[in-house]
Amino acid sequence: MAFTILGTGSCLPELAVGNYEFTKFVETSDQWITTRTGIHRRHFVKGESLQSIAVKAAQNALEDADAAANELDLILCATVQGEDISPALACSVQKELGAVCPAFDLNAGCTGFLYALNTAAAYFRSGMVRRVLIVCAEQLSRFIDWEDRSTCVLFGDGAGAVVLSQGNDLLSTRIAADGQRENLNITGEGISGPFWESKRQKRCICMNGREIFKFAVTTVQHEITAAAKDAGLSVDDVDCFLLHQANGRIIESARVRLHQPEEKFPVNYAECGNTSSASIPILLDDLNRNRRLKKGDILLLCAFGAGLTWGSCVIRWNKD
Ligand code: ACO
Asked: How do beta strands 205-207 and 184-186 pair?
């Protein structure tokens, strides 16, 4: 016994920035970005805040689940970094929702949603919870190096959420990490004090894109096969693959290697860019709201990210 998905929600900031805007401050082109990544635009927090988009996504998910905030037993937020270092974003969301349950953040880079689902599964299996809210909210625009054309065009801000209740629809869950592979870092700013001098540089994303690309194409294929097997299924039994929306070429490569049809791989990277942990729950909410999922569909979720971390899970969709 673990969980079933009761509801989904998401929120994208209003400001949408097209590829052309980047040509004004780095040497790039719409054509390069489109052909190498598939991304056309991404959203950035401007009038909103990370907290406000997280709360909006959570409210949408509660509404879709027909659940009240005071029924929640746990709030998990996946985020590379919350609005502040402390308190946790999950506590700010709890306050705004008027919930009364424990709340904490976890950081597994872009794999955050898979880590949160895995953590929630352990709570459900222990019998400690009956309703859990997961919110994945990211504002990577705070860490973008706007002079680095190889990273600044990739990321976007956004939030996605799910409400889970006790049920039997989690068919497998896998998470992993390899801290030796430091191919994506957001190093922190330090503060000098009377007894030391900080040697840290400005805080920004530093990524070896080629290495991550190579890692991602092999890992995604392996994870998908293993997650399906753990669920007692074959890859062909899966109705819908929801992959981390980092780059269209990574998704396409996985699809071709697994001999699966295009319609099983819905995408939204063209409109959102890479929203880190929020990418899969935003996509899931989009599919749910547009009635593209049928009750009984087998969903396979798979992501990779900073850490390096990676993970996957198989869930039966049980909403009408
Ligand atoms: N515009 C124009 N040219 C560019 C740009 C740009 N925006 N960015 C890089 N280039 C140039 C490079 O300088 C290089 O030029 P050179 O050959 O003269 O040196 C050339 O394009 C090719 O660069 P590559 O890095 O080989 O390009 P690639 O095809 O690998 O695409 C990319 C780069 C898009 C970053 C790709 O490697 C990728 O998607 N990697 C995975 C990244 C990823 O998924 N990151 C998220 C991890 S998840 C998380 O936790 C946040």
From this structure: antiparallel
Q: Closest ligand 1 atom to the C-alpha of 28?
A: 1
| 44-68 pLDDT tens trace | 999 999 999 999 999 999 999 999 9
Q: What is the 76 CA–ligand 1 centroid distance (Å)?
A: 32
- Catalytic annotation present for 43: no
- Comparing CA positions, the residue from 47, 39, 48, 49 lying closest to residue 17 is 39
The CATH number for 173-316, chosen from 3.40.50.720, 3.30.420.310, 3.30.70.2730, 3.40.47.10, is 3.40.47.10
**DSSP E strand stretches across 203-264:** 205-207, 240-243
- pTM of the predicted model, to two decimals? 0.95
First CA to last CA distance, the chain: 21
Residues lining ligand 1, judged by CB closer than 6 Å?
Answer: 28, 32-33, 36-37, 109-110, 149-150, 153, 184, 207, 209-210, 212-213, 216, 246-247, 274, 276, 305-306
pLDDT confidence tier of residue 29, bands split at 50, 70 and 90: very high
Q: By alpha-carbon position, which residue is closest to atom 39 of ligand 1?
A: 247
Ligand 1, atom 14, residue with closest C-alpha: 150
Q: Name the residue with the closest Cα to ligand 1, atom 26.
A: 210
Fold of the CATH domain 2-168:
Peroxisomal Thiolase; Chain A, domain 1 (3.40.47)
